[in-house]
Amino acid sequence: MAGLILLFCLVAVILVRVFPWLANAYFREITEGIIGLAVIYPAARKLGFEFGKVRLYLAAFKAGLAPAFKYFLIMTAVLYAADYVFAMALAPWDLHWTNTLLFWSDQSSNLATRDPLISGLLRRPLLLPTYFLAICAIGPIMEEFVFRRWLYAGMRRWLPVWAAILLNGALFGALHGKDFIDTGLCGFFFCWFYEKTGKLEVPILLHAFTNLLALLLIFGEKIFAR
Question: What is the pTM of this model?
Fold first, then answer.
């Protein structure tokens, strides 16, 4: 596996040399995502993943689309309501601790919201499919395997359900930068629905829908602000 990763890195370096226009953040993000999937592949195999069952996995994703979308609508409604109440409750105080909490709910540190990145993608629309693939497919698959299938499952062996969900969600939020609160709440929901269904494809689809909505809102705001 290490040899395959090195080979992939070598191919990526050669492609950048041959096609200099690939030397950008979007290509690196795709490359890092594929390397990340390769790194977690041995652990995935130990947990039962097999390439020969790809059709079965795709069928499971197809069957999970409707329930995952229903959970996504519920989660989105709750998160937007919570964000509104949270901001309205804290904003008038203008204290250090309230400002810190509002700072933690700010998503401007998220890679997907950085203005130069969005502007660059809009100037190079051919790169949009690869960027959406990285954010809405590779990222959710990799993160849900690590956080839910591996880390959360391990926490459940030692902690009650509520404690494992809170700890896993908090860790998920902490590792996403400044927008700790929103991503932490998403992590709670991903764990909860994973616990409820026992199917990893549900939090993967939830994660994908969430990232897709975020990107559509970000790009839409940028386009219509012109």
Answer: 0.76
